[in-house]
Design a protein that fits this description.
391 residues, mainly alpha, Double Stranded RNA Binding Domain, 3-stranded antiparallel sheet, zinc ion binding
C-alpha cells in the first residue's frame, strides 16, 4: 500500500537496529568509536596505561578495616600491633607479613582488649541480644488484611520468573559462557594494566560476538566486520540480565558460568574498558515491582488479596487434607481475580499472574531455606545455656 511504502526503510528492522533516526554526527562518532575498538582488538593500538594496578590500589585504599579488626584480612580481631608498621594485625596475618626480610625484625606490642574488642564486642552483643520469649516475626500480613507497604518493599527484591521466550535466551547465555575462558585468560600474573585492559576487551567482545551470532547469523557477520556492538546493546543487556536473574532464583544453577559472567560484567564497567567499548552491557534486574510499575499496575501489591494469592500451602502434618485443598482453591481464585482486576492495555492478566507466581516462588524458597535456620536459632537460644557445658 502507499502508506506502507512511505514508511522509513529502517523502521521494520526493529528499535535496536534502526539507524535512520540518527544524525550524521552520531553515526560518525559511532563509526570512529568502532574503528578504535577494532584497532585495539587487532593489536594495532595500545590502551593508555594508567599505572600498574591503579584502579585496584584505589579500591584497596577505600576499603579501610573496621576499628579493632586486622588491617590485612579485615575479618579477625586485631591482637598484635607492629611498632614500625603502625598497624594492628591478627596473629595469622602478622606471621604471614613478617616472616622474612627486614619485617622479621619488627617489634610488636599487644593490642589492649578495650581497643581490639570495642567494635566486635558491641556488634556481637547487639546480634546476640535476642528475646527468647518473643515470637518469630510473621512472614507476611494475615490473609484478608490490608498489606500496606509490606509487599511493595518485598517486591523490589523479588526477580520475575522467566518466560518461555526468556528461557530460550537463557540457554544461549549458558552455552556461550560455558565455552568461554574469560577468567583463565584475564586473571594471569605479569600483565601490565594496558595489556590487561586489552585482554579484557578482546574476551568481552568475543562473548558479545558469540551472543549476537548465535541469535542471528547475519547480525553476527556484520558485527565482526563493523565492530558496531552498540547497535545490539539492548539485546545483549537483556540476555545477560536473564542469566543473572535465573541465578538469583536458582542459586544451585550456573556454578561455573555465573562466576565468568560476574567477572566480565565487573570488568566491563571499569573506566578504561568503558571508554573504548562505548556501551554498557549491564542493566538492572527485572523485579516484580519494576515490572508492574513500568506497566502501571503497581497497585496490585497493595491489594488485600495478594497475601492469599502468594502464600505457600504448607503440609505441616497439622492441617487436614480438606483444609489444604480449601487453601489451594482460595489461592487459585485470588490469582484469577487479581489477574482479571488489574489487566489493562498496558499489562495482560497473564503478566499479572506471572508476577504473583514469582512472589510465590520467592515465598517457597524462603520457606525451604530460611525457616529451618530460624527454627535452629530458636532451639539454640531457648534450649541451650551458653554459659553451661552440658554432656
Amino acid at each position: 500500500s502507499a502508506a506502507r511504502r512511505s514508511e522509513p526503510p529502517g523502521e521494520k528492522i526493529g528499535p535496536v537496529y534502526s539507524c535512520w533516526r540518527r544524525s550524521r554526527q552520531e553515526l560518525e562518532e559511532m563509526s570512529e568509536a568502532a574503528k578504535r575498538l577494532g584497532r585495539v582488538l587487532d593489536g594495532h593500538e595500545e590502551v593508555p596505561d594508567g599505572g600498574e594496578g591503579g584502579g585496584d590500589a584505589a579500591m584497596a585504599q577505600s576499603e579501610a578495616a573496621p576499628p579493632g579488626f586486622c588491617v590485612e584480612c579485615k575479618e579477625k580481631v586485631a591482637r598484635t600491633r607492629c611498632v614500625q608498621c603502625a598497624d594492628d594485625y591478627c596473629r595469622v596475618c602478622f606471621q604471614m607479613q613478617h616472616r622474612k626480610g627486614s619485617r622479621a625484625k619488627h617489634t610488636t606490642t599487644k593490642v589492649s582488649a578495650s581497643i581490639s574488642r570495642g567494635g566486635a564486642a558491641q556488634s556481637s552483643s547487639e546480634m546476640m541480644d535476642v528475646d527468647e520469649d518473643a515470637p518469630l516475626a510473621s512472614f507476611a500480613p494475615e490473609a484478608g488484611s490490608a498489606p500496606g507497604n509490606w509487599f511493595v518493599e518485598r517486591a523490589k527484591y523479588i526477580p520475575v520468573r522467566l518466560t518461555m521466550a526468556e528461557r530460550k535466551e537463557l540457554r544461549l547465555c549458558e552455552a556461550v559462557l560455558s565455552v568461554s575462558d574469560y577468567t583463565s585468560k584475564i586473571d594471569t600474573v605479569g600483565k601490565s594494566k594496558a595489556k590487561r585492559t586489552q585482554a579484557q576487551l578482546q574476551e568481552i567482545c568475543a562473548v558479545l560476538t558469540a551472543l549476537i551470532t548465535a541469535s542471528d547469523y547475519n547480525d553476527g557477520r556484520d558485527v565482526v566486520e563493523s565492530r558496531q556492538y552498540k547497535d545490539h546493546e539492548s539485546r545483549i543487556q537483556d540476555i545477560l540480565e536473564i542469566g543473572r536473574r535465573h541465578k538469583i532464583m536458582n542459586p544451585e544453577k550456573m556454578r561455573g558460568e555465573y562466576g565468568k559472567l560476574i567477572y566480565m560484567l565487573q570488568d566491563s564497567v571499569t573506566p578504561e574498558v568503558q571508554h573504548i567499548l562505548d556501551m554498557r552491557i549491564v542493566k538492572p534486574i527485572t523485579t516484580v515491582h519494576s515490572y508492574l510499575a513500568a506497566r502501571g499496575a503497581a497497585a496490585v501489591l497493595e491489594d488485600s488479596l495478594i497475601t492469599t494469592a502468594t502464600r505457600e500451602i504448607i503440609a505441616d502434618g497439622v492441617k487436614s487434607r480438606q483444609q489444604l485443598n480449601r487453601e489451594s482453591r482460595e489461592k487459585h481464585r485470588a490469582i484469577e481475580h487479581l489477574g482479571d482486576k488489574y489487566a489493562s492495555r498496558r499489562i495482560t492478566d497473564e503478566e499479572v499472574k506471572l508476577c504473583l507466581y514469582s512472589m510465590g516462588d520467592n515465598h517457597s524458597f524462603l520457606t525451604a531455606n530460611r525457616d529451618p535456620v530460624d527454627k535452629m536459632i530458636v532451639y539454640l537460644t531457648r534450649l541451650f545455656d551458653p554459659d553451661q557445658i552440658e554432656p
